[in-house]
Amino acid sequence: MAEQFRLQSILDLSVSRMDEAAKALASLMASEQDQARKLDMLEQYRAEYQGQFMAAAKSGLTPNQWANYRAFLTRIDDAILHQQRQVEHSRTLARAGQREWLDTRTRVKAFETLSVRHHEGLARQQARTEQKVADDRSGRQIDDD
Questions:
Q1: Number of Cβ within a 10 Å radius of residue 53
Q2: pLDDT averaged over the chain?
Q3: How many CB atoms lie within 10 A of CB 69?
Q4: Considering 25, 106, 109, 140, which has the largest number of Cβ atoms within 10 A of its Cβ?
Q5: Distance in angstroms (rounded) separating the CA atoms of residues 112 and 10
Q6: How many other C-beta atoms lie within 10 A of the C-beta of residue 139?
Q7: Ramachandran assignment for 99, one of left (phi > 0), alpha (psi -120 to 50 degrees), beta (any other)
């Protein structure tokens, strides 16, 4: 019976961790995209509202209307600033998730390489054993003749 790869359980665990890291990375990337979409929506809304403000200002605004527009634009700007921070935070988390996945993938590849070498060694050993048996048989056949 062939000798089992001694590090197989570690290889299996590493593959499992790599799969988990891949799922986490997918989730982090989706979150980053969601945060970026929200930022885009806020920026578009601000541009539209700014356009409405400019159009209203051309036709004349009361001081109260002017203050209301400016206050609302300030709130939108604050929301945009907050959302930019959220996007950057999500981007940082996604990068960390990508590094984690790459690290686990590197470990898996290293263990897979060791496993391949182990199996190749076993195959070479088995081939030598079979060759020896074949040589012994042919040697006995020559002696019998």
A1: 18
A2: 93
A3: 18
A4: 25
A5: 10
A6: 10
A7: alpha
| DSSP sequence for 93-136 | HHHHHHHHHHHHHHHHHHHHHHHHHHHHHHHHHHHHHHHHHHHH
Residue 65 in tokens: 């209307």
- CB 17, CB 104: distance < 8 Å: yes
Q: How many CA atoms lie within 13 Å of 78's alpha carbon, on the beta-carbon side?
A: 6
Q: What is the C-alpha R_g of the chain?
A: 34
Q: Is the pLDDT of residue 69 over 80?
A: yes
**Tokens standing for residue 27:** 């989730």
How is residue 6 annotated by DSSP? T
**CA distance linking residue 53 with residue 76, whole number of Å:** 13
Domains, the chain, ordered by start: 18-144 (1.10.287)
The set of long-range contacts for 75-80, using a CB threshold of 8 Å and a minimum separation of 24, is 76/42, 76/45, 76/46, 76/49, 77/46, 79/42, 80/39, 80/42, 80/43, 80/46
Q: Could you tell me which residues come within 8 angstroms of residue 28 by beta carbon, excluding any fewer than 6 positions away?
A: 90, 93, 94, 96, 97
